[in-house]
Write a structure and sequence with these properties.
The chain has about 375 residues and is an alpha+beta fold. It contains nine helices and 14 strands. Strand 3 and strand 4 (about 80-85) form a beta hairpin. Helix 4 (about 100-120) runs antiparallel to helix 7. The model is unreliable at about 1-10, about 20-45, about 45-55, about 60-65 and about 320-335 (pLDDT under 50).
């Protein structure tokens, strides 16, 4: 590996050194670069609730496990959000020598689940509360929106902050902010602006009961806090259905066993890869993904066969430009469309044609690195 001259920086070196510590009995309690490695966090506003959860689910669920102590994250001082640091690993980067969008999405899922564990929620499900487990209820994603302003490279250290909030009677939402840990620069934002509850046995959606809401809302900000506070931001845009015939397609995609998660269906991150499979290669070669929005409409099981369809979405301004006529939606129609093309996507069950997922992506020209 020394011949590869792998890039690294002081922040990454410090984080690597920390995980070389022996178990907590011999590893000193200390704070390095703002990260607390003591089993006791400053959570005054919610400490009583944490104590109650610990009594119900066992103290190890809140603090005390080896993973809790070695994990480079903790609740913020008010106990209402969670921050964690990650080093980008070599197998998490793609052809652009930066982290892939699937890597980013997996880290968002990871920090969200770690947040849930840090306040005592289940380790055998995605953030399930005590009442949810009794009633066989699970959380499933209804909409995901990710914007990436700068992709981190191999050995970069990123910090992700996340928090959750109520969202009507049938669901909740979770938001994230991604920063370059070395500079503090915001490099991305994301929201799972609709997370709904499903009965694991019947596979039907179910309203969030007051008991469940009481269990998780105590850990949520008292006032509405959004990763995308801007009015009419793109996370709220409706996604039109892509109609046949699509310009680009990839047919016959089959879920791998590794694509299934603990909820016994294809994990939401897998859909991102399927959407990108039907992107035109000329766009992949010259652009990088800037924004992706996905609406999840149907579960996908291990024996399903999926078709991925893609077509360019013309903006309202572009529709009035004469040069677009006769281009059949080509990504080279105008300078604006060429530099920031937008695409509509559809995932459907092969044969039956039932809609699984619809999406929108926006791309920007690659810059020299």
């Amino acid at each position: 590996m020394s011949m590869l001259k792998a890039p690294c920086n002081a922040a990454a070196d410090n984080l690597r050194a920390l995980v070389q510590c022996r178990p907590p009995a011999t590893c000193p309690r200390r704070r390095i670069s703002g990260v607390s490695f003591s089993a006791t966090h400053r959570r005054a506003p919610v400490v009583a609730v944490l104590d109650r959860v610990a009594a119900a689910d066992g103290a190890a669920a809140v603090a005390g496990s080896l993973a809790d102590r070695l994990r480079l994250g903790s609740l913020t001082e008010d106990g209402l959000s969670y921050k964690e640091r990650f080093i980008v690993r070599c197998y998490e980067v793609g052809i652009n020598k930066t982290a892939t969008v699937e890597t980013i999405a997996n880290l968002l899922q990871e920090v969200g689940c770690n947040h849930a564990q840090s306040v005592g929620f289940s380790t055998d499900g995605f953030a399930t509360t005590t009442t949810m487990r009794k009633l066989h209820l699970i959380w499933v994603t209804a909409r995901m929106h990710i914007e990436i302003y700068k992709y981190p490279a191999w050995s970069d250290v990123i910090e992700i902050e996340t928090w959750c909030q109520g969202e009507g009677r049938i669901g909740t939402r979770r938001d994230w902010i991604l920063k370059d840990y070395a500079t503090g620069q915001v490099i991305g934002r994301a929201t799972r602006c609709k997370w709904v509850m499903m009965n694991q046995d019947t596979r039907r959606l179910q309203k969030v009961s007051d008991d469940v809401r009481d269990e998780y809302l105590v850990f949520c900000p008292r006032e509405l806090r959004l990763a995308f506070p801007e009015e009419n931001n793109s996370s709220l845009r409706k996604i039109s259905k892509l109609e046949d015939p699509a310009q680009h397609s990839r047919l016959g995609l089959v879920p791998r066993r590794a694509d299934l998660d603990m909820n016994q269906h294809v994990n939401n991150v897998t859909y991102i890869g399927w959407v990108l499979e039907s992107m035109p290669q000329e766009v992949i070669d010259t652009h990088e993904l800037q924004t992706i929005t996905l609406d999840y409409r149907r579960e996908c099981q291990h024996d399903d066969i999926v078709d991925s369809l893609t077509g360019q979405e013309l903006t309202d301004d572009a529709k009035t430009i004469p040069e677009l006529q006769g281009t059949n939606g080509s990504a080279t129609a105008t300078k604006g469309q060429q530099d920031y093309p937008q695409f509509l996507h559809l995932l459907r069950l092969s044969g039956e044609g039932l809609e699984i997922n619809r999406g929108r992506t926006e791309w920007r020209k690659k810059t020299a690195r």
